[in-house]
Structure formats: structure tokens, C-alpha cells
Amino acid sequence: MAGIEEIAHIVPGVLDDAARRAYAKAFDAKRDTTGGLGDMEQCLETAMLFDVVVGGEVVARYALRQVARAKGVEVFVVAAAGGLKGVDLVAAIGPYIERQCATADRLTINTRRPGLVRKMQAQGWTLDSYVMRKKL
């Protein structure tokens, strides 16, 4: 498969109305990984935003947050949204994000989507933990 650089350009993103609409799907009740306590605006305002542009059109967006921990640096994919007909963007963009974060010690994503877990496992990711919540 061709690298994403051959079909697209990754450019810095901005949190404008179009980006908010695109990211909203990543934060809907079906995909929310915060148990309803998260806030899209707060999450994205502290993240590094990137747009995937094909033919002059933004086809996907992703947001990264870097966290310095006592024993290393972890980068979280805090949101991703978009699509391009005929292209598996997870497979296409994943390696680019890994190269983008090469100086970090860990790259982490939280998801509620079993299909995404399977796709990522096929790309060498491992299931690291389960999150249990109890509403009080």
C-alpha cells in the first residue's frame, strides 16, 4: 500500500467550525471513552491538531496530546475523524502518526470500537487494559 504521503498531505489543523463538526462524531455517546465526563472543546484546545488533505480537500482530522510522565513521554490520539472512499485511513495514517511521534516512548489510543481494536492489533498494537466505571 502506498504511504499516506503519496496520496495526501498532513498539515497543522485549526479548531474552526468545520473541525468541530468533524470531531463531534469522535465524541458522540457511542464513541465517548470518558463515561460522559469529557468535553470535546476542552480536549481539543490542549491538543495538537492535524488535517489530512487529499486533492485540496480535508478528508480526515486527528488530534494528539503529549504527556510527560516520570519514566517517559506518552502521546495520546485524543480524537480522529473522517473518511475517504476506498481507503482504510487507519492503516494509511497510522504509520505516519507513529513516525510523527517517533521520539515518544508510547503512543496510546482509547476506543470503544471493537472493529478499530482489531484493525490496530493487525498493525502491531496491543490491548493494554480495560476501563471499568461505576456511576455514582
How does this model look, in words?
- By secondary structure, the protein is an alpha+beta fold.
- The protein is built from five helices and five strands; from the N terminus they run αβααβββαβα.
- Strands 1-2-3-4-5 form a five-stranded mixed β-sheet.
- The protein is globular and about 45 Å long.
- The model has no long low-confidence stretch (mean pLDDT 89).
Topology:
Layout: H1 4-7, E1 9-12, H2 17-24, H3 40-45, E2 48-54, E3 57-69, E4 72-82, H4 89-100, E5 106-109, H5 114-122
Parallel strand pairs: 4-5
Antiparallel strand pairs: 1-2, 2-3, 3-4
Overall radius of gyration: 15 Å
Strand content: 25-35%
What is the element string, with H for helices and E for strands?
A: HEHHEEEHEH
Overall residue-averaged pLDDT value: 89
Key features of this structure:
136 residues, alpha+beta, globular, 29% helix
How would you summarize this macromolecular structure in one to three sentences?
The protein is α+β, with helices and mostly antiparallel strands and 136 residues long. 29% of the residues lie in helices and 29% in strands.
